[in-house]
């Protein structure tokens, strides 16, 4: 699947949250959305997922509008993990993950062997097998995020949109999740992920999109996007850059007081 945003703008009251954004995301790549708080990352992801109506511009899926494609088909082809995703009832983890297969099931139809296999793969991939019988409301924040990611993965969609999937995770599971997303892209799906950790963004993403003030400040290869000038302008920081085992890293190091 190819998702393309053209001239995308979003307004809430008198505030423009997105300003004339033009971007495209395709199969087999992992793209990181980065930027300071309030830059428009979550707003952009919601528009890409078809969950918000733009004030101006369009979002298309393989050249089709959401109206032409239909929400049922989009639900099978695109999976979305929200930043504040949660379940409002005491559901078991395995039951939650099985909800990811609903777009593939006919009304009133039971689970197929393919559904059960997809759920098993998602639980294993996210290190949630031992949590399968636990209620979601008994989990830690990090465990809950992994379970919700498993639900998204169970869709086995062509495109995965994930909003800060590593924010609540310990270092081991941060790396595990980024490796998992990298593997999803390597198998041919597209991945768009919102990140605040610049080192994880530099190491794992094929390209980055830096948002600031609702606009695209920079887009391209991680090393180019994470330049000193871009980081100073967007984040008001100075960073340390380096390379380890063939991968780049960027460490926020010093604040720069805005002029």
Automatic annotation (TrEMBL):
Keywords: ATP-binding, Nucleotide-binding, Translocase, Transport
Protein family per UniProt: Belongs to the ABC transporter superfamily.
Stored SMART domains: AAA
Domain ABC transporter: 1-238
PANTHER family hit by this protein: HEMIN IMPORT ATP-BINDING PROTEIN HMUV
Lineage: Bacteria, Pseudomonadati, Pseudomonadota, Alphaproteobacteria, Rhodospirillales
Known function: Part of the ABC transporter complex HmuTUV involved in hemin import. Responsible for energy coupling to the transport system.
Name recorded for this polypeptide: ABC transporter
Leader sequence residues: none
Recorded GO MF terms: ATP binding; ATP hydrolysis activity
């Amino acid at each position: 699947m190819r998702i393309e945003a053209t001239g995308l703008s979003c307004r809430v009251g008198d505030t423009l949250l997105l300003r004339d954004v033009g971007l495209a995301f395709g199969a087999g790549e992992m793209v990181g959305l980065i930027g300071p708080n309030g830059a428009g990352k979550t707003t952009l992801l919601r528009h890409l997922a078809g969950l918000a109506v733009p004030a101006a511009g369009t979002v298309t899926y393989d050249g089709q509008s959401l109206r032409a494609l239909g929400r049922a088909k989009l639900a099978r082809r695109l999976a979305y993990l929200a930043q504040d995703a949660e379940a409002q009832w005491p559901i078991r983890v395995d039951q939650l993950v099985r909800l990811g297969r609903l777009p593939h099931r006919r009304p009133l139809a039971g689970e197929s062997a393919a559904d059960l296999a997809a759920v098993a793969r998602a639980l294993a991939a996210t290190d949630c097998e031992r949590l399968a019988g636990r209620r979601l409301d008994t989990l830690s924040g990090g465990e809950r995020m992994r379970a919700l990611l498993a639900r998204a993965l169970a869709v086995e969609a062509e495109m995965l949109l994930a909003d800060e999937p590593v924010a609540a995770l310990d270092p081991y599971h941060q790396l595990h999740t980024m490796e998992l997303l990298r593997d999803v892209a390597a198998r041919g799906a597209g991945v768009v992920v919102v990140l605040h950790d610049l080192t994880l963004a530099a190491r794992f993403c094929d390209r980055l999109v830096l948002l600031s003030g609702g606009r695209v400040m920079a887009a391209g290869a991680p090393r180019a996007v994470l330049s000193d000038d871009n980081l100073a302008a967007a984040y008001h920081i100075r960073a340390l850059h380096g390379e380890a085992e063939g991968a780049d890293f960027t460490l926020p190091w010093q604040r720069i007081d805005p002029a």
